[in-house]
Amino acid sequence: MNHDTYSNAYIRGILTSCRSFAFVGASPTPSRPSYFAMKYLMAKGFRVIPVNPVYAGELLLGQKIYASLADIEGPVEVVDIFRNSAAALLVTREAIAIGAKVVWMQLGVRNDEAATLAEDAGLKVVMNRCPKIEYGRLSGEIGWVGVNRCLIDNRKPHLFGKGGTLKHRA
Fold first, then answer.
1. Which domain holds residue 106?
2. At CA 41, angle to CA 151 and CA 10, rounded to 5?
3. CATH number, domain at 102?
């Protein structure tokens, strides 16, 4: 797969079929990207599990912080990596070990070896993207101001059906 670009259908497929994310490298600092991405996805109905050994056992946005992916109770579909590119390989190995379906590397994170390893194990891979931004873009929230249509108006695009919202599988 070409990881320089992703089709809307590929990203939409992940965001509509997966309901649980583990945020590896989650931060309790409100100004950090992991914090507001977690808050946003939770508001959209996703289960988001923070993973950070420094804060293990504490709460982040009401969710218990785990020390590692292996410590998480219950299934995790998407492992979202808020660590540097070098750390992505180890996190990907852990994602495979817990049976995740997707490895998602945040903006600025790219590791082709990790991507190949994940794909060889049957996982989907997204690199250098943010699920918060992608959800907003594909649901029309960002498009309300013309960002993804190159046209500024106040009409919501109807990409996913009535109201321009993503449809989730129950």
1. 8-139
2. 65
3. 3.40.50.720
Q: Note whether residue 46 is domain-resident.
A: yes
Model-level pTM?
A: 0.84
Domain count, the chain: 1
Q: Which residues pair with 112 in a beta bridge?
A: none
Residue 130 in domain: yes
pLDDT tens, the chain, 170 aa long: 899 999 999 999 999 999 999 999 999 999 999 999 999 999 999 999 999 999 999 999 999 999 999 999 999 999 999 999 999 999 999 999 999 999 999 999 999 999 999 999 999 999 999 999 999 999 888 755 444 555 544 555 555 544 445 555 44
User: What does DSSP assign to residue 154?
Assistant: S
Q: Say how far apart CA 15 and CA 169 lie, in whole Å.
A: 10
